[in-house]
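Q: Got a minute? One more chain.
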Amino acid sequence: MKTTLKLSIMYTAILAVLTLTSCEKDEINSENTVSEEVSTTSDINAKASAILAVSRYYSGGSNTVHTYRVLNLGIGIGTYEGRPFKLGTYDFISAPPSGTKQIFFLLAPGNRDFVMTTSSSEKSNLLRRGFRDYSVRTLYGNIKKAAYIHNSGGSGRVKLYRFYGASNTDHLYTTNYNEGVNAGYAYEGVVGYVYR
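A: Always. Here it is, folded:
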């Protein structure tokens, strides 16, 4: 009888964990995202800041959009295109490291555009237009993380260029200036400095 009770309790606990995991996956899939596992989440949680690769995704067709994701910040929609640059992450309860500024991740209604900006006023304007904010997320252990970008060049850092394709309302972020020009996008400036 005791063994049956223990097995029943263990079965219930496993079922609860599987249900929660399934709900998290359903939430991710409902946004048409491609999830990215981070095998060192506990290590990242333990550090105040870390430099991590940013994944870039592309969704073509009638809803052309490039999206970007680092850790659980930003969002990945469409086909994974690789990791073209790196950003820093930090505990949101503190300020970003000296010589850097927070970078915001915003997704347009209908997934029509994805904007990365360091401008608080641009962020506010986009939120008023219905963009969703993916700039601060909570990891395991209720630790909030945000991303930062460097204000200037330095050892191993390069410019992150921002381009915009008006015909498809798509922003492109790249460390290769020619990539944006060759795509026929208009140059909008340098967001900041990143690692490759």
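A: Residues 1-30 form one domain.
Q: Perfect, thanks.
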